[in-house]
Amino acid sequence: MRARTATWFETKIRYEKTMEDGLDKKITELYVVDALSFTEAETRITEEMSSFISGEFKVTDIKQASYGEIFFSDAAADDKWYKAKLQYIMFDEKTEKEKRTTQYFLVQAATLSDAVKHIVEAMSTYMGDYAIVSIAETQVMDVYEKA
């Protein structure tokens, strides 16, 4: 499991795909790319998809993602992406109140329980308290990071 901090963009690609029954169907897929700007995100996803999609495709949406980090897995079985919401719990001595800071992560895993394990493993070096508030499977097909 390795973590990667960067500026991430969620991109949607629409194209015609031949389904298992042989019929062509227009589909939209979600991909995440590491880029410095919206323009670079569109260029990067276009380059990445050109080698996988024969025929025309269109980038239909790009938005900056709020992921603090993305946890990649090298395990072949880890073929899904989960969005996790974590809260760091700190005690403010001035106000004598508990303060929570939220951060989102994208985690590559085979199952929901594996995603939790990966988060716990990645957070094992964090010295403070944190809580996993939610984890949900996403529609992300793949993540493309800069080389």
What does this structure look like?
- The chain is of the alpha+beta class.
- The chain has helices at about 40-50, 110-120, and strands spanning about 1-5, 10-20, 25-35, 55-65, 65-70, 80-90, 95-110, 130-135, 140-145.
- A five-stranded mixed sheet has the order 1-5-7-6-8. Strands 4-2-3-9 form a four-stranded mixed sheet.
- The model has no long low-confidence stretch (mean pLDDT about 90).
Q: Any descriptors?
A:
147 residues; alpha+beta; 5-stranded mixed sheet
- The overall pLDDT average reads 91
Tell the overall outline.
elongated
Biggest sheet statistics: 5 strands, mixed
Structural class: alpha+beta
Helix proportion: 10-25%
Q: Indicate the multimeric state.
A: single chain
- Low-pLDDT segments, ≥5 res: none
Note the gap between the termini.
Answer: 17 Å
Side-by-side strand order of the widest sheet: 1-5-7-6-8
Number of strands: 9
What count of helical segments does DSSP give? 2
Secondary-structure element string: EEEHEEEEHEE
